[in-house]
User: Which sequence fits this backbone?
């Protein structure tokens, strides 16, 4: 325990200004998503662009791909969240539950990306990146891929995938020496639970039920 605390203090001291900015932007982004506020996307873009660089530097190639995907999906989600009905001039997209078909789709989506990322990282580990952790990186990455896709569609289930992502990312980034980022994922884990409960509450107010 003492060794872990000492390592944590050393890692905090070595944290770069870029990582500090990325962490605070990431926390801000999740806070705004919890509130269903469009600022989730512009703030989130600051986080994802910086983490593309950080992840590549730390040989977390799966996470680098996730942040590139986040960047693309943030632009896509930004468009969906602001799209209005041409007649009523009201926001079209609302918080909803996934139906059975959508649940099957997201499970297949997750398994497909897990397989692709895992085997890609196994190959990278044996050839270029001996420090890679294929199974953990692939899990954190594929749950994040799924969560971001569902977040863009305002699906309540996106929070379940974010919870899984954060739980996997806390030890993953700590092992890689990014202690401050690990703290970010701990905070994001707490916010993910809060976001889940808040979106469920909003759905109930709109009389939206689970299918």
Assistant:
């Amino acid at each position: 325990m003492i060794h872990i605390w000492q390592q944590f203090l050393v890692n905090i001291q070595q944290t770069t200004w870029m990582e500090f900015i990325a962490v605070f932007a990431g926390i801000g982004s999740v806070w705004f998503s919890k509130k269903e506020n469009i600022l989730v996307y512009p703030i989130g873009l600051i986080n994802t662009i910086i983490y593309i660089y950080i992840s590549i530097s730390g040989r977390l190639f799966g996470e680098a791909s996730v942040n590139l995907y986040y960047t693309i999906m943030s632009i896509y989600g930004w468009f969906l969240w602001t799209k209005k009905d041409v007649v009523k001039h009201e926001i079209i997209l609302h918080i909803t539950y996934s139906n059975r078909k959508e649940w099957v789709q997201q499970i297949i989506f997750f398994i497909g990306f897990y397989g692709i990322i895992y085997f890609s990282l196994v190959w990278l580990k044996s050839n270029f990146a001996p420090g890679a952790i294929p199974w953990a990186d692939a899990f954190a990455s594929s749950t994040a891929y799924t969560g971001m896709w569902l977040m863009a569609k305002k699906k309540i289930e996106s929070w379940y995938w974010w919870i899984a992502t954060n739980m996997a990312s806390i030890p993953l980034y700590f092992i890689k020496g990014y202690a401050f980022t690990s703290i970010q994922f701990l905070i994001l884990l707490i916010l993910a639970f809060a976001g889940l409960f808040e979106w469920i509450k909003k759905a109930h107010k709109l009389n939206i039920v689970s299918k």
